[in-house]
Amino acid sequence: MQETFSKPFSKLLVDWERGDKDALNALLPFVYDDLRRMAHRCLQHERANHTIQSTALVHEAYLRLLGANHPDYKNRAHFFGVAAQMMRRILVDHARAHAAEKRGHDFQKLSLDDNIDKAVERSEELVALDDALNNLIKIDEQKARIVELRYFGGLSVEEAAEILGVTPITIKRHWRMTKAWLFGQMQKQ
């Protein structure tokens, strides 16, 4: 994420929260490229024939980020932390809908090729990951946020550390432990 625009970005957020509609329009150029990179990195973890493209994910996340119930964004890092969370929700909602659609069509048993089988497995994995993350939130919210930022947001260790206000070493340590814990939880499902 670019840091050269931090002060204007924060000022635009404050102005927008005070009702300045022009600030909202001026905000998009500051965030669009970073949101697009986040979406691209996020979708790299998804199945090859995913129906959501990076651009659509960015637009949906941006609309949710700027929706009526947005939090008071403290700064650029906070904004992108929430963006990672929104992208997770969008992808999980999409995966749940995809899985429900597949269950609803069991009566038409078709011979599926490997790519389609893998796509269904990826949707199921994403839903299992979301369920495991929801359990982790109850135990350790910070570790769950690390997963959102790194896996769903595609952020680097340093970027995640900045957003959470911890050192990169802490992020690396928690990331290793959390991946192992999540793997164990997903195996139980």
Task: Tell me what the structure shows.
The chain has eight helices and no strands. The chain is mainly α and 189 residues long. Helix 3 packs across helix 4 and helix 4 (76-104) crosses helix 7. The longest helix has 29 residues, at 76-104. The radius of gyration is 18 Å and the shape is globular.
| β-sheet strand percentage | under 5%
N-to-C SSE series? HHHHHHHH
User: What is the helical fraction, as a range of percent?
Assistant: over 70%
Taking the alpha carbons of the first and last residues, their distance comes to 35 Å
Number of continuous helical runs: 8
Shape: globular
Low-confidence stretches: 1-5, 103-120
Main structural class: mainly alpha
> Describe the biggest sheet?
none
Radius of gyration, in Å, reads 18 Å
The count of β-strands is 0
- Mean residue pLDDT: 75
Please tag this protein with its features.
76% helix, 189 residues, globular, 8 helices, mainly alpha, disordered N terminus
